[in-house]
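tool_call: predict_structure(chain=1)
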Amino acid sequence: MTFLVRVRVKQSTLNEFAAALRARALDNSRVRGETWCRKNEPAVGYSVWETPDRRDFDARFDPWRRYYEQVEITEVISPADAMKALLRNATESPEGRG
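tool_result:
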C-alpha cells in the first residue's frame, strides 16, 4: 500500500526531532524519496510511504507521531492505476456509454 502523509512539525519537539533524525533513530526505510516541505510554511511536510499493509504502516509511523501536531494520511495509487480506475468508472457509468 502507498500512503501520502502530510504532517505539521510540533515546534516544541523540534530539537528532539532533529536529534532523532541525525541519530537515525527513526525508521524511514519505507519512505519513498524525500520529504518535501511547503516553501512558505516549512513546518508542513509531505512524504510518500510504501508498506505491505496499513498495520505495517501504523507500526512504522507510530514513533514519528510524537514530533507532529497534525497528521493526515491518505492512501494513494499510481497514475497508471488511477487511469485504469477512471476508464473503468467511465465505461460503467451511464455518462460514459456513448
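agent: The first helix runs from residue 14 to 22. Proceeding to next step.
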